[in-house]
Amino acid sequence: MPKLNKRRSLGRTYIRKRWYDQRVLSENESLSEEEEITQNEDDYVEFIRLVDKMKIDDIGVLFELIKDKCDDFFKEIGALRATTANRWANTFLSGSFDKFINEGRGGKHISSFYDVFPDIELLAKNYSVQRCAAKAADFDAFELAKFIDEQFYMLTSIKKDSNDSLIRSVKSCRLDLRRWGARFESNSQRPYFEGHKRQDVVQHLTTFLQHFLPRKDSYYLISEGAQPKWQIPTVGTPTILIFRDESTFRSGEVSAKRWLYDDQVPFYSKGRELDEEQHIDYIERSASASMHVGFDAYFDNATILTQFERLFKLLEFKECFNNHKIEIIVDNARTHSARNYNLSDFGKGISTRCPVDRLQWVDDKGATQSLSCYFQQGSNRGKSKGLFEIAVELNYNPSPKLKLSELRQLLAHHPAFQNIRWSCCNPLSTQDDIAAALVKAGIAIFAWKGETEEEKLWCIDQTIYFADGEPLNAILDDGCNLTRVVHEKYLHLTDAIHGCSEETTAGITKLRKLLKNKKLNVPAINVNDSVTKSKFDNNYGCGESLVDGIKRATDTMIGGKTVVVIGYGNVGKGCAKTLRGHGAKVIITEVDPICALQAAMDGYQVTTIAEACKIGQIFVTATGSTELIRGEHIMKMRDMAILCNIGSGQTEIDVVWLKANAIKIENVKPQVDIYHLPNGRAIILPADGRVINLSCAHGNPSFVMSNSFSNQILAQIELFTKKGQYPIGIHILPKTLDEEVAMAHLEYLGIKLDKLTPTQSAYIDVHPDGPFKPIYYRY
What we know:
By secondary structure, the protein is an alpha/beta fold. It folds into six domains: 6-79, no CATH class; 112-181; 199-329, no CATH class; 343-417, no CATH class; 421-531 and 703-746, 3-Layer(aba) Sandwich (Rossmann fold), CATH 3.40.50; 532-701, Rossmann fold. Helix content is 37%, strand content 12%. The protein contains 28 helices and 24 strands. It has an eight-stranded mixed sheet with strand order 18-17-16-19-20-23-22-21, covered by helices on one side. A hairpin with a 5-residue loop joins strand 9 (358-362) and strand 10 (368-372). Helix 19 (531-554) crosses helix 20 (570-581) and helix 19 (531-554) crosses helix 26 (702-721). The longest helix is centred in the C-terminal third of the chain and has 24 residues, at 531-554. It is flat and about 110 Å long.
């Protein structure tokens, strides 16, 4: 073969220098003897960095590089072939931007960099998976680019110049991550720090640091550096500091979005690593031990401390650790709040904006459903679906001509896009596992067990406005908590609220005060006085849950004890009947002569609180009023008397007096305190004087609560479908709806009804299908 001319030889030399382990030759082409010599000489020349530019003095040299083998050359360096590039250039110039963006632009691209350095690609991918699976979400494409840069210079032994740019750009690394199967999504599972910095959280963090910093010389510490060593305490009592593994105390580091791999999900929430069995694993004569606190990832402090006590009893400490202190740090934040999304956050087409990875909702059968917002396979894998495709998959069969606003209107009533924001009515009543499950179903929950009064009000405030900035337009209340806050702080919003429904005696009392003082600005439906609520939830439900709460809190025997029930309304009647069924001697106190007479006719002793306080062993307040059990009564009570509230709030028992006059307050278990009095006696107070069935147990049984909640939903439907028809005031649901609720619960209990004959119907002037009683009938 003839010898290569000077230009062609020079061009080949540049190619070898830039792509040192590849040769741009045809299969049947061989190097000349002269070029082979040149190549061998090149092996001893310093390697030219990839970031260097080629200096070409003659345009002919560039021509020689691409002449004849233009497409092969482009393929080798990972570029589009000439015909493909021409086609996409024409597409772009013609203005077909959507097509240009969404299509593959020439099919699969082969990255020339990774063809040359396949080992770096493998290392980079493994590094990405590892970093994406880490707890702290600070990994990004720039970090990957820096890693690749370090690996390149390490592999090639080239000295990096401080002015050199990155070997692989951040944009290319972002594409690499997508190609390797990673996705960049909102971190919706970490909502605690999203959108707010609560003042109490900041204060607690400050208190936390102020505790440790002055004591730092008392702790066993580990020195920094390549070979860390233990630093022995030098001041005070030597202290061993124990952190729970995988603690989420560093959750503030988590950003709004992060890179994820499906098979390498990062550790998100505490409890993920805990097993269902509640026991401790300990390997004898070793430092290996683990404890299992249960399936519920959100657990109370008492459970944690109890498990640690059990663990330490199993561990065998060396004698050198005598007289040491042990401090345990466990992040136990129990705030639940879902990441909110709204239809306005979604775009219409493929690859348009999408705020969440999945839609989740509860269908009409109570089952949790979900739909991915991103394509999982095919040519659009990893791209957002957009509202049009979502509507198709939700079986709405939308027309392709629908505008974005029309799509949003079409989907507005689907449960996946229904907005509900929930806060608690009682600081101790929230069941954290239930709250967490509701969050998983896509409902925004602002509640956790053990809220302070300040935290409770903060939670209520979070329910006023939704993620899209729109305020609430309906109120479903328990205790008039949300209604009161709206009328005190957000009165300007009441014009847009079509009504509220209230289900408690205490809540109705507060609503009546608002109405009497002409401060009620919305129509309200009194769910509490629906027969299927007050005669079932209040009576049967409270009766059973009261005893459940007393036994869980105190483990006391009810049979044979004297129990004083203060109030003989619907709640008092149910409590007295259940307590008597457990063998208690029940005494009733009342201010209402009718209720007092009813109690006497039912066989109970009726007397005053002043008399009953001397002989009672368990006291139950059930009125919804205030200052029922006061200091003068408490000082006359028997030693270790139990004070319970099942009426309302924290007002029925004078807890303030107890705290001010007790010489010692002893916490014996979660939510159970013993108050030691100056007279030498003691009083047991569960739930800090709050309602015992919600605070110390799980509230009323679900079957009877189904009656109440059915009334709540019917009330909301009534207010929504008849906007403007209910004037401002307090209303009661129609009798037909009350009977409809009862009818819906008969089949479960196996109840069959007789039917009025035409003669009977005419005789008593009642329609065969009801309503069967007039509105004034007292059941």
